[in-house]
Amino acid sequence: MAGEDNNREARRGDDREESSPLLQGNDTKIYSKEDAKTAPIVPPPAAEEHGWTADGLPVTDGSVIGEPIGRNQWNSGLFSCFGRNDEFCSSDLEVCLLGSVAPCVLYGTNAERLGSAPGTFSNHCLTYSGLYFIGNSLFGWNCLAPWFSYSSRSAIRRKFNLEGSFEAMNRSCGCCGSCIEDEMQREHMETTCDFVTHGLCHTCALCQEGRELRRKVLHPGFNAQSTVVVLPPSEQTMGRK
């Protein structure tokens, strides 16, 4: 009888241990060496592949990794010679005048807004002027300067994530997207379209870039910080009674 009572007490102790709340949440299983050999191996989840832009940045959608973000549109069209009827209308007319009369100055100011390093305007303006006069003297038209200036259009497009000519054509007709495999090839096609745009519509391309930059980038010579002028106290004299 005493042995049966001891067995009953031992079973009750085991039931209490199994019903303990501390043991209910522990679902950890301990495998032996033989079980570990026969247990199926679950491969780790594969990392998602994401595209990369030509600048080495991931294609994102407002976060670090996600879907490709949509391109921004240009503020004005390529053939919008007089710009838009907004607060920059006077600046658009100035851009149109510079592009028609002095494209070297317009290109120099565009390069100066893109890179505000000292001497940017003079370096780009003088180089453009030399190519402009050589092209007009030898070939009768400005055919050399676009080879030098088209890179500014690519820089503006990348900096502000603007829609390129190739992407716009693919969006309208959908006939060019099948030949593009990755973002690197797309960027090469966009750069080629930038060169063609400068070659065929050089003045219009310069004006469109100038209107875009004047709406988004302040001139490097403009000091937006407030200046506090401290005036010395006026001379004081003591009057005699």
From TrEMBL:
Name of the molecule in the record: PLAC8 family protein
Origin superkingdom: Eukaryota
Region annotation (Disordered) ranges: 1-54
A Pfam family of this chain: PLAC8
Basic and acidic residues composition bias: residue spans: 1-19
PANTHER family: DUF614 FAMILY PROTEIN-RELATED (PTHR15907)
InterPro entries registered for this protein in UniProt: PLAC_motif_containing
